[in-house]
Design brief:
Helix 5 packs parallel to helix 6 and helix 6 crosses helix 7. The radius of gyration is 19 Å and the shape is globular. The protein starts with 5 loop residues before the first strand and ends with a helix. The strands form two sheets. Strands 1, 2, 3, 4, 5, 8, 9, 10, 11 and 12 form a ten-stranded parallel beta sheet that branches. The protein has a two-stranded antiparallel ribbon with strand order 6-7. The chain folds into two domains: about 250 residues, Alpha-Beta Barrel (TIM Barrel); about 70 residues, no CATH class. It is α/β, with parallel strands linked by helices.
């Protein structure tokens, strides 16, 4: 059986280059492409539609959108539309977002678990072409449905994956989601605790851990020059550790390192600030929480994540030659 492998695209590449990357990944036996949407830089839906239009078999996932900024009716109709474009190839990856970004755009992420549960519950019902009334704390809909007049009226096969990092979100994801997108910038052994929590949630719903798909984002910097690959990752980690505290916490980085990096980086961080702070990221950390180095080194590290429960690595090409990364993991 071939290894499952997926590509993760964020905002570092020109959008049209992304179309070439996904076509190439499909040719090389990749299973899926996931498009990020985290900072205020690139929306996920527009690229997903473009990727769907230029591929035939590749699954297209949102990796991940948040559950706060799109009204539930719009969210359901968006994924219905994507499924019209690429039937049975769309995955809705959704996460709880993070502060301070959410707060800075006027969103109060109170009760993130309940908000996510309501979103997933109603979204599933709408994509199942049910007529829905729901009066929750976050979602209020009255007698609505996806009122398709022209086109397919049958329930849509759009699995919902939750991007979860914290313990309670991992557990709830096991209970209500079709899959969990496990986070990146964590050591492979982080997965063992995550799997226990997901399994605990799955049992609540009368399911087994194996009933869920568990892909995982993996930062992957591949270069024939080992040192060059490491330096590229160091720049990325500098920004992530400063701006996404939940990732820093999960990766076990010493708080004083994080604070020192944060004292140098502004928001948004400039290239100069990243260059100034990057020496604070130790090489040992890069090897522990990313797949960086030569093709052989990157493959060996990805295998560690798979041994620890990841069902499909979602490889995030940091800088460098994306075609080389695809070739490195081609089936």
């Amino acid at each position: 059986m071939k290894n499952r492998v997926a590509l993760y695209l964020q905002d570092a590449h020109d959008l049209r280059d992304g179309l070439d990357y996904v076509r190439y990944a499909e040719q090389k036996g990749f299973e899926a492409v996931w498009q990020a949407e985290s900072r205020l830089v690139r929306d996920a839906i527009v690229p997903m539609a473009a990727y769907a239009a230029v591929t035939e078999k590749l699954k297209i996932g949102s990796g991940v959108i948040n559950n706060w900024t799109r009204n539930i009716g719009l969210l359901a109709s968006t994924f219905l539309t994507l499924d019209d474009l690429a039937p049975d190839r769309i995955i809705c990856g959704i996460g709880a977002w993070w502060d301070p970004l959410a707060k800075n755009v006027g969103i109060d992420r109170s009760k993130p678990l309940l908000a996510m549960k309501e979103t997933v519950t109603v979204l599933k019902q709408l994509l199942n072409m049910e007529r829905v009334s729901f009066d929750g704390e976050f979602i209020h809909v009255n007698n609505i449905e996806l009122d398709v007049v022209h086109g397919r009226k049958e329930p849509r096969n759009v699995p919902i994956y939750i991007g979860a990092t914290g313990d309670m979100m991992l557990e709830m994801s096991g209970e209500i989601a079709d899959g969990v997108v496990m986070n990146y910038c964590v050591p492979p052994e982080y997965n063992l605790k995550a799997l226990e929590l997901i399994e605990k949630g799955a049992k609540k719903a009368g399911r087994k851990l194996t009933d869920l798909d568990l892909p995982q984002l993996v930062v992957c910097s591949v270069d024939l020059d080992h040192d060059k690959a490491i330096d590229t990752t160091r720049e990325l980690l500098t920004q992530y550790l400063a701006q996404q505290p939940h990732i820093a916490k999960a990766s076990g980085v010493a708080p004083d390192i994080v604070r020192e990096i944060q004292s140098i980086l502004g928001w948004p961080a400039t290239h100069e600030q990243i260059q100034k702070a990057k020496h604070l990221v130790p090489e040992e950390l890069i090897h522990r929480i990313t797949a960086s180095g030569t093709p052989d080194e990157a493959r060996a590290k990805v295998k560690e994540y798979m041994k620890n429960g990841c069902t499909c690595p979602i490889l995030y090409p940091v800088g460098g030659d994306v075609h080389l990364l695809i070739d490195t993991f081609a089936n």
